[in-house]
Amino acid sequence: MAYSEKVIEHYENPRNVGTLDKADDQVGTGLVGAPACGDVMRLQIKVGDDGRIEDAKFKTFGCGSAIASSSLATEWLKGKTVDEAATIKNSMIATELNLPPVKIHCSVLAEDAIKSAIADFRSKQAAKKSLASG
Amino acid sequence: MADPFETLGVDPRFDLDLRALEQRHRDLSKALHPDRYSGAPAQERRLSLGRAIDVNEAFRVLRDPIRRAEALLRRGGAKVGETVEPAAPPALLMEIMEVREELSDAARAKDLPSILRLGAAMTARQEATLKKLAQAFADAATEPGKISDALPILGELRYVRRFLDEVSALEEELSP
């Protein structure tokens, strides 16, 4: 199957590959997998004091489309507020990368990773708040 | 797709005797060989050819543990596929992520011994996962409601397989 030019571009020059400190309470980590193919994807966001995402990193072991989806996601995440980030949909990623129907699940994986990273960040913030007030 | 167990006429179970399966495939292929039908009417030739193709495909499905498990799950009425299967438990994802990172570090360093060591550990794990899967299907044979218990184990097997495929590719690339 032929990959679109945009997928190949991200695959060859992935943006923001790497790791953020999982223990930092400004960092949210999302770890997701695709049970039907065995791909794994980790996506992390670091939220600044102004509530905006100042950094995003990913590490994906999977096909070109999964790598491109997570690479694009990190690009889009930077500079957004957490609420804005939560509105990113897999269909936006799939459209941007011209993913064929059999690869749509890669963009779903990226959306899941974003949601899971946001949920992790929010639960850390909630824990911090309850610690401060309790 | 037709049920591969029916096509080959073997018992629908996970722990198949692979040698007997191979023999069965060979016998059927021989019986369906086009040479045997060279004098037969066109209709019959077409049918036997179609059947031979089905037999080959069924054999390919059944000799692969992942596809065999999928076929058993479908027979049992469980849904199989990307969007319907349960998500892996976080601990499994963390473990797989960790070893994938180790493997990619070893690949970058062209460290073949470490790659082989990681592969051997995962092969042992694959054996254990296959045993668990066989047990789950054996349980489901007596209690059909339990068939979906096999789904997360199949998911685990796919992560394991994916890792081992990567190890094989690296091994081939780095072997002198």
Summarize the structure in short:
By secondary structure, chain A is of the alpha+beta class.
Provide keyphrases for this structure.
heterodimer; A: 134 residues; alpha+beta; Sufe protein. Chain: A; three-stranded antiparallel β-sheet; B: 176 residues; mainly alpha; Monooxygenase; 2 domains; 7 helices
**CATH topology (fold) name of chain A:** Sufe protein. Chain: A
Number of strands of chain A: 3
Mean pLDDT of chain A: 94
* Tally of contiguous helical segments of chain B: 7
Under CATH, the topology of the largest domain in chain B can be stated as Monooxygenase
Low-confidence stretches of chain A: none
Distance between the termini of chain B: 42 Å
Beta percentage of chain A is: 15-25%
Number of H- or I-type helical stretches of chain A: 5
In quaternary terms, these chains amount to: heterodimer
Number of strands of chain B: 0
The SSE string of chain B, one letter per element, is: HHHHHHH
Structure, explained:
The complex is a heterodimer of chains A (134) and B (176). Chain A has 134 residues and is α+β, with helices and mostly antiparallel strands. Chain A has one domain: Sufe protein. Chain: A (Alpha-Beta Complex). Chain A contains five helices and three strands; from the N terminus they run H-E-E-E-H-H-H-H. In chain A, strand 1 and strand 2 form a beta hairpin. Chain A starts with a helix and ends with a helix. The mean pLDDT of chain A is 94. In chain B, helix 5 packs antiparallel against helix 6. The model of chain B has no long low-confidence stretch (mean pLDDT 93). At the A-B interface, strand 1 and strand 2 of A face helix 5 and helix 7 of B.
